[in-house]
Every structure is written in structure tokens, then in C-alpha cells.
TrEMBL record:
PROSITE patterns: PROKAR_LIPOPROTEIN (PS51257), RCC1_2 (PS00626)
A family per Pfam: POTRA
Primary location class: membrane
Localization per Swiss-Prot or TrEMBL: Membrane
Keyword tags: Cell outer membrane, Membrane, Signal, Transmembrane
Species assigned in the record: Aquirufa originis
Name of the protein: BamA/TamA family outer membrane protein
Limits of the Bacterial surface antigen (D15) domain: 417-750
Length: 755
């Protein structure tokens, strides 16, 4: 790409220089040739270019100023004649004209930016050097010492009750921290935060305009240590908001509900809607709780629009909530397909939704997907054929938690609540087998805040069955499962008739949404699951009616197990310009099967796996471990019941190319192990005394091509420590090779960041 740009530049330059018009052209008036910035230490040139528009060209440009000016004048002439500009339109960034006003304006803007960011004594000087109407400007920056907040602030509030709230905010909730660098934008945000805090305390009319925050220059005349002076109110005109310091309580909400055609709705669910309002009569007004209430109503999926206004003509705030209902029925259908090894595979997806089926706020969802898609065979992976897959699911959803009232009361304030009950059915028809899975579930979901999410499933039943046709392909597949069983892999259990029941709980804290944008944040997930709990109440630990229902002639697997998993991820921006990021994750999990009827084995899907593009990238997907086990084939997945995994990744920007090319350096570590009970290989078992000797480590470099709407990722990873090797041969980094061998480079391609 670089060579092509150079060649293009040479051809363009030769063509223009050979043009007589360009050769004889002279710049008619002074233009900026180059802008230099010197003396800046604590604020980078990139930051100044971004925030001070007059110096955005403070770098060497690709083409000469004369050429930009010539093309700019030529384009203007064509535009004035209403002639479509030629291919040179892409060079439409002429050098700015120079004059003394331009120089003074940019000096003031740079100095103002420094002052806004805490450098109150910054001074800007300029030097100008010109040759034949080409002007080089140098801004010499003397930053001086920055000013810092001391938090030794003073307060003046006319209303004593309001003063208590403000003083409490400054001590406990202020976004200004001691020894933080002065930032005028932060003072503006502080006004907004204080206003928001007071509006949550019942001050409906309070606004940022009522807050005055000044720098107190009495305590330190050098302005090196900044204390603030809060004055409330500080309206230019006190009559604008006369009730800024008045507390308001809530009156009874009034609903106006229209059907999809704008007519008054029949049988409006007033009582049900009132339960979704988190503020009740006589409560102090809170902007956050009312926003939660609106979100509660919107998340019912019953209304196109949800709006609220307040009647303030009386002594209280009376909410008037206007709602327009969605259509009762919605149907969507999608026809698509895929191509695998040249074989087309069509699929059809349908979704049907019925609102207000049993009550005024519930909705019923039904969806199906049928596909006849091409896949490779299990035994002969070069053999490709179409396989039939059918998925159906149906659920009824209610916008409340159907729990005993004493339990709901203990949850406190929450929003986004939903109770779902449903059934699902999956059918797969391959030459090797026919597999069905019937799923019954019930779950509760709710939020305690914008960042905290809870899911509790009291019922989750799965009834799985596999039928093998009498064919050579099916016999070969059963033989393959038996080989895996002898190697310690329990994949065969997924194809035995099984009954898996569980109760589960999940908590997620997430203060950022996963995206391609690099930013600060963290994610924490906790999952708890108890499988087969009710089986403990039965002497045989089995349900006889399930065995009779399948009537397959095989023993039905009933599982009893406990499972815990943790996931913590932290993202922190680095550098003055916040252009790079350090990302960290740590995963842990343990699954304990206490049912001896299955030799202490877990359902295959409840095992932990490690390795692959989003895990330890120096190993193939799901092929690392368990422990120091030496696998005889890369085709065999390696499940485990204990997981430890961690990754550290440094992400940084490289250069734009039809999007943005980013890079990353990473280190991955971890492994899975088996419990000591049951028939397991000793090399796969977890022992507290030496598990750290079985931690696998990999490292590598990655490229990310960010198109905003999606990100294409390529990671090259190599093993550093291989736990499967003998004790004195675990260090394998020197054996890294692109040509195979003991430690080949692993190429991982994916969409989005690995975590």
C-alpha cells in the first residue's frame, strides 16, 4: 500500500509539474504552509489538534501547499461555472489563509484550552517565518504549573434544609476528587450531577442554572491549590424558577391509553400499570425512580410510545402518563441460506407474537426455524451432506415477578421485571443419528439498577433422546463415541437418553456494553446451578414416568450436580490521549457431580472447556487439558469439571485503512481439571499442592480491522508453557515455528474482540 501511494504521488506530481499552468502559478496571498507546536509536555500535540480547530493542520502535509492552493482555486472556478469537479475533488483541503487576526485567534484558543484544563498561568508565544507567501507558524507554549482541587470548599445556600442536602452531596457524591487537576468542563458536570442528585431528593424544579461554582482565590493566591465556593441560588433572574428549593410529593398517577388507531383503549390495565410505578402517593419526587417507572412500562412491549408530564397546578406532582398500544398481533418471516463446500443450505425462520393474550400486559411468543443446511460428517470429515434441523419455542411473558409477596418485598426497588414460562423442542436428523431435546423452563429476570441484572430459573427440564438408524454410518458413529469413552471423553453421554433438571441463578454487573469501541469499564458475572435437586427426595434418584415415556430400551441418565462459575473483566484506557487500552479477564468454575449412578459424570454441556479464539489462543478450540493429560488426537475435545483461566491484552491503534487497523499483544493462561472422584486419569485430576505446575501459558500478537459496525480479528499465538510435556520440557517458546513441529503458530480468526 505504501509503495502504491508513492508511485501514485510521483505520477500525479509529474503530470502537474509538466502542466504549464501549474508551473507558472504563484500563490496570490499568504497561506499557512506548516504549523509547529513546541514546549507542550503535559498536553499532547494530538489532543491540541483535536480540540483547537485552528491548529488541526499542525503536521507535515502529503502534498506541497502550492499544489493544494492551485487545486483549490481551480475547483472554485469550476464550481462557479456549475461544472462538476474532476477527479481532483479528493484534494479539497486547501491550506488556510494567513493574517494577523488568524494568528491572534489561535493563540487565544490554545491559551483558553490550557486554562480550561487547569493550566491557569499558561502563556503562548508565536514565531512567523514566511517565504514567497508560504508562512510557517510556530506556537511556543509555556504550560506553567497546573492547578489541583483541594476539596476544602465553602458553601452558601439560602434554604437551610436544601443546604443539608447539598453539603451531603459534596462530602459523599461529588465527582470532584482531592488533588484532581482543575478542569472547567468538570465543574459544569458537577453542576449537572448536583442538580440530578437534588431532583432525586424531591426538588422537582431544581436545575444546574441554580448552582454557582466559583474558584476561591483567597486561600491560595497562587492558584496552585484550588478550593471552590458553591452558591445556591445564582440565577441571573430569581423569578425564572421560584420553586427551585421546594420539596414535592407525588400524587395519584393518571393514565391516558390509546389503541393502535388512536382511540381510547378498551379495558385499560390501570391497576397493573400502577404496580409498575416505583413511586407511590406521598413519596418524595425522584427523577431516577420515575425513569425506572417509564422503563418498566416500555419493557412490557405493549406500547409504541410512553410519555409523561406533570400537573404542577396543585400542591403535589400529579403524573399524567400517555400511552399508545402496539398492535395485538405481529408476524415476521425470514428466508435465507448458506453455502458450505459449494452445497447450498436453505433455512426458514418464523416469529409470531400475540399481546394481551391472558391479561392486559402479557405477551405470547412463538418461533420456529427449519433448516436443511450442509455440514461435514463426524467420521469422514471430507464427506458433506445436508442435514435437517428443526427448532421450536413458545413462551408466555408477564411484566412482574410472580413470587410470594414477602420475597418480592425483600428485593426492594427494581425494574425491568419479567416472569417467563415456556417450552422448546429441537430435532436433528443426520445420517449418524436422530436427536430430540424437549425443554421446559420458567425464569425470573429483573434489574436493580442500570448496571445490575438478575436471572433466577426455578424450573429447567431437558429430556434428551437419540435414535440410531440401522446403517453403516450410524454404526461407525457409535464406534467413534466408544473410542472417545476409552480415551476419557464423555461425549457419548450427550447421545444417551437423559433427563437433566436444574435450578439456577445468575447475577451480572456490567457498566459498559460489549462493542468495538475501546473504553473504561468492568463486567462481573456469577452463576450458580443445582442439577437434579428433587431427585434427592427419591430412593432410586429417578423418575419412573420419564423412563416409561421414552421407552427406548436403554437406561435413562438422571444427573445430580452442583455448578459455580465466575467471570470478571476489566478494561482501562491508557495514555494522555486515552487511545490504548489494557484488558484483563479471569474466569473460574467448579462443577461437582455427586450422582454415583453415572460414575460421578456431568452432563456433557455442563463441563468446562478451554482453548480457542476467545480462550487460550495458543491451543485449538476445546483441546487444552485436562491437567497434564497428553491427548493422542486434536479431534477430541477435552472436558473438565474445574476451570481456571486468565488473559491480559494490550490494545492500541495503528493506522486507518477503510476503517481502523488496531493491534494487540496478549498473554493467556489457564487449564481445566477433573475431580478426584470417579474413574478419571490421575494426570487430569486437580490437586491443590501442584495444580500451578499444570497452568498452560500462551502469548502472541493480533490485528483487528475495525469497520465500526463489525470488527474482524486475526490473532497469532504460540505456546510458552505446555503442561502436557515432562517437567523439564514444559518451556516450549524457543520451539515456535510457522512450519509445524512441536510448537506451531496458531492462527485464530474471529469477529469482535476475544473478551
Amino acid at each position: 500500500m505504501k509503495n502504491q501511494s508513492i508511485i501514485g504521488f510521483i505520477i500525479l506530481s509529474i503530470g502537474l509539474i509538466s502542466c504549464g499552468q501549474y508551473h507558472s502559478f504563484e500563490i496570490p496571498s499568504p497561506v499557512i504552509n506548516q504549523i509547529n507546536l513546541t514546549g507542550n509536555r503535559q498536553i499532547s500535540k494530538a489532543e491540541l489538534r483535536t480540540n483547537v480547530m485552528g491548529v488541526k493542520n499542525s503536521y507535515r502535509r502529503l502534498l506541497p501547499a502550492k499544489l493544494y492552493t492551485y487545486l483549490g482555486i481551480k475547483r472554485k472556478r469550476k464550481d462557479s461555472l456549475e461544472i462538476k469537479p474532476s477527479f481532483i475533488q479528493f484534494l479539497k483541503s486547501p491550506n488556510p489563509s494567513y493574517n494577523s487576526a488568524w494568528l491572534m485567534t489561535n493563540k487565544v484558543q490554545i491559551e483558553r484550552y490550557y486554562r480550561e484544563n487547569g493550566f491557569l498561568k499558561a502563556r503562548i508565544n508565536s514565531n512567523v517565518d514566511s517565504i514567497a507567501n508560504l508562512v510557517n507558524v510556530t506556537f511556543e507554549i509555556k504550560e506553567g504549573e497546573p492547578s489541583y482541587f483541594t476539596k476544602e470548599d465553602s458553601l452558601s445556600v439560602d434554604n437551610p434544609i436544601l443546604a443539608e442536602h447539598v453539603n451531603s452531596y459534596i462530602k459523599e457524591n461529588s465527582i470532584i476528587r482531592p488533588m484532581g487537576r482543575l478542569n472547567l468542563a468538570l465543574l459544569k458536570k458537577e453542576k449537572e450531577q448536583l442538580s440530578h442528585h437534588l431532583r432525586n431528593e424531591g426538588y422537582y424544579y431544581f436545575s444546574p442554572d441554580a448552582v454557582g461554582i466559583r474558584i476561591n482565590d483567597i486561600k491560595d493566591t497562587t492558584l496552585r491549590r484550588i478550593s471552590l465556593y458553591y452558591k445556591i441560588p445564582e440565577f441571573k433572574n430569581h423569578s425564572i424558577i421560584a420553586n427551585y428549593d421546594r420539596l414535592y410529593r407525588i400524587g395519584v398517577p393518571e393514565f391516558s391509553i390509546s389503541d393502535p388507531f388512536g382511540n381510547p383503549a378498551e379495558h385499560p390495565p390501570l391497576k397493573s400499570l400502577a404496580k409498575l410505578i416505583n413511586l407511590h402517593e406521598d413519596d418524595l419526587y425522584s427523577v431516577d425512580l420515575f425513569n425506572q417507572s417509564l422503563k418498566n412500562i416500555y419493557l412490557t412491549d405493549q406500547f409504541k410510545t410512553v410519555s409523561i408530564r406533570f400537573d404542577t397546578t396543585r400542591t403535589r406532582l400529579f403524573p399524567k402518563i400517555e400511552l399508545f398500544q402496539n398492535e395485538k398481533y405481529n408476524f415476521s418471516s425470514e428466508l435465507g441460506g448458506s453455502v458450505f463446500r459449494g452445497i447450498p443450505g436453505p433455512f426458514l425462520t418464523n416469529s409470531f407474537k400475540v399481546r394481551r393474550l391472558f391479561s392486559s400486559l402479557d405477551y405470547f411468543d412463538f418461533s420456529t426455524r427449519i433448516g436443511y443446511e450442509a455440514q461435514s460428517g463426524f467420521i469422514n470429515t471430507t464427506d458433506t451432506r445436508n442435514n435437517l434441523e428443526l427448532n421450536m419455542s413458545a413462551s408466555i411473558n408477564f411484566p412482574t415477578l410472580h413470587l410470594p409477596q414477602f420475597m418480592v418485598g425483600k428485593l426492594g426497588s427494581y425494574y425491568g421485571a419479567k416472569t417467563s414460562v415456556g417450552v422448546g423442542f429441537d430435532f436433528i436428523n443426520r445420517p449418524e443419528y436422530q436427536r430430540t431435546n424437549l425443554n421446559l423452563f420458567q425464569r425470573y429476570t429483573w434489574q436493580k439498577s442500570e448496571y445490575s441484572f438478575f436471572t433466577f430459573s426455578f424450573v429447567n427440564l431437558n429430556l434428551l433422546n437419540t435414535i440410531y438408524p440401522e446403517t453403516a454410518t450410524s454404526d461407525a458413529f457409535k464406534g467413534y463415541l466408544e473410542e472417545l469413552k476409552l480415551k476419557g471423553n464423555n461425549l457419548y453421554r450427550s447421545f444417551n437418553p437423559s433427563f437433566v433438571s436444574s435450578i439456577s441463578f445468575q447475577y451480572v454487573y456490567r457498566d459498559l456494553l460489549p462493542s468495538n469501541e475501546l473504553k473504561n469499564g468492568k463486567i462481573f458475572q456469577l452463576g450458580l446451578e443445582s442439577g437434579g435437586s428433587t431427585l434427592n427426595l427419591l430412593p432410586s434418584h429417578k423418575f419412573s414416568f420419564v423412563t416409561d415415556l421414552l421407552n427406548s430400551g436403554q437406561d435413562i441418565q438422571f444427573y445430580r450436580f452442583l455448578r459455580l462459575n465466575l467471570d470478571y473483566r476489566k478494561y482501562k484506557m491508557l495514555g494522555r490521549n486515552q487511545k490504548s487500552q489494557i484488558a484483563f479477564k479471569i474466569l473460574g468454575g467448579v462443577a461437582y457431580a455427586y450422582g454415583d449412578e453415572n460414575d460421578y459424570q456431568l452432563p456433557y454441556e455442563k463441563n468446562f472447556f478451554i482453548g480457542g479464539p476467545s480462550s487460550v489462543r495458543a491451543w485449538k478450540p476445546r483441546r487444552l487439558g485436562p491437567g497434564s493429560y497428553v491427548s493422542t488426537s486434536n479431534l477430541v475435545e477435552q472436558p473438565g469439571s474445574i476451570l481456571l483461566e486468565s488473559s491480559l491484552e494490550y490494545r492500541f491503534k495503528l493506522f486507518p485503512l477503510f476503517g481502523q487497523i488496531n493491534g494487540a499483544f496478549f498473554v493467556d493462561a489457564g487449564n481445566v481439571w477433573n475431580m478426584t472422584q470417579g474413574n478419571t486419569d490421575p494426570s487430569t485430576q486437580f490437586h491443590l499442592s501442584d495444580f500451578y505446575n499444570q497452568i498452560a501459558v500462551g502469548t502472541g500478537f493480533g490485528l483487528r480491522w475495525d469497520f465500526d459496525f463489525f470488527l474482524l480479528r486475526l490473532d497469532l499465538a504460540t505456546k510458552v508453557i505446555n503442561p502436557a510435556n515432562p517437567v523439564n520440557q514444559k518451556w516450549v517458546l524457543p520451539q515456535t515455528s510457522f512450519e509445524g513441529g512441536q510448537n506451531p503458530i496458531e492462527f485464530n480468526i474471529g469477529i469482535g474482540y476475544p473478551f
